[in-house]
Amino acid sequence: MDLTYNIIINIYSIALLIIICHNSLKHDEKESLQHKLYMMVLKNTILMLVVDILSRFDGKPDTVYPVINHLGNFMIFLLNPILPSLWLLYVHVQVFQDEKETKRLIYPLLAINALNAVMVILNQFFGWFYYIDSDNIYHRGPLFLFSALITVALILVAFVLIIANRKKIEKRHYFSLVFFAVPPFVCIILQIIFYGMSLMLNSVVLSLLMVSLNIQNHSMYTDYLTGVNNRKKLEIYLKEKISTSTEDKTFSAIMIDLNSFKSINDTFGHDMGDNALQVFAKLLNSCLRSNDFIARFGGDEFFIVLDISNRMDLEEIVRRINVCVEKYNESGERPYKLDFSIGYAVYDYHSHMKAEEFQKQIDILMYENKQANKEIRRNYS
């Protein structure tokens, strides 16, 4: 591939990745492993695009070209398995939503990358993967396919992981995760077949853009622990519901606080406390309709918004939530039992309350229910 053409297309790709990086910095869950891995994938791709340019300085042996060419090709082969390794970790955390399990996967991937690093260093003496002749021309070595297959194998493992666990992945995320492997895989095959063609990294940029639009941007409004909407999304959604309400069609809201959360943390540890929040979020999803809006308001509080305009239907939903939780507690699946306080109301169109005021009204009702529950427990003790 012509050096000038390579520089132009790589600079264009780098510029696009920088824009994606800048957009990703607005992410609310910057401490989540998912976000960190995605940022690492972006930055590693930028680095590899720069190195890819350096590896194209063939010819002109009487200039500085040989130094740049040797450095570029050494770095490109050294970095090759890192990008698919990071992608595999990203897929794993997306599929299983378990940061601890994903972190365990780091060690075998480090071993693979370490083996590759040793092979690349030895390649400088034996020319297994590639060699650069006295005219500063790059040539593939006898084990070039071995190096390429490491990358292909890691991408395929991630792809198989996605397909095998498709039922665990949100439908809106599934396509982007599956699609990620397609452009680079096609380009890798073409690169193996057609000597001199190298568009794999540029195709990764397209895949990362898809992930950014369909997963990362959505995750800005998702609570990373429970998978439901976060408070920022709730504020936006609640304002929209109020602005679109009419005298004939309004909405309802429910606020729930887990009474037992502190005792779960104190008795069983914070991991079990996190599990209780995840279980409760799943229970709410299971007993509500698909179009009902659920958000983690903060800590152990959840906020639900429903397209319900009358009190009777709202009370039926509250009854359904109580039944769901009671059945779960009776199942004895976990050593703890879930207990909650709840406040709920139908939004009064004529009140012209703002989102913050309506939230406060629901919060007061929930607090009153909490105090009533404490009084009942006190009388029984």
Question: How would you explain this protein's 3D organization?
Answer:
A 4-stranded antiparallel β-sheet has the order 4-5-3-6, with helices on both faces. Strands 1-2 form a two-stranded antiparallel sheet. The mean pLDDT is 87. The protein has helices spanning 3-24, 33-54, 65-79, 82-96, 99-104, 106-126, 144-164, 171-193, 200-219, 231-244, 261-268, 270-287, 311-331, 355-380, and strands at residues 130-132, 138-140, 252-258, 293-298, 301-306, 340-346. The protein is built from 14 helices and 6 strands. It is elongated, with a radius of gyration of 27 Å. Helix 2 (33-54) runs antiparallel to helix 3 and helix 3 runs antiparallel to helix 6. A hairpin with a 2-residue loop joins strand 4 (293-298) and strand 5. The chain starts with a helix and ends with a helix. It is an alpha+beta fold and 381 residues long.
Task: Name its key features.
381 residues, 14 helices, 8% strand, elongated
Kindly summarize this structure in a few lines:
The protein is an alpha+beta fold and 381 residues long. The protein is 66% helix and 8% strand.
How many strands? 6
Distance between the termini: 81 Å
Provide the spatial order of strands within the biggest beta sheet: 4-5-3-6
Secondary-structure element sequence?
Answer: HHHHHHEEHHHHEHHEEHEH
How would a textbook summarize the main sheet? Answer: 4 strands, antiparallel
Helix content: 55-70%
Count of helix runs = 14
Provide the β-strand percentage band.
5-15%
Summarize model confidence as the mean pLDDT: 87
Shape: elongated
SS-derived structural category: alpha+beta
Low-confidence stretches: none
- Rounded Rg: 27 Å
- The oligomeric status of these chains comes to single chain
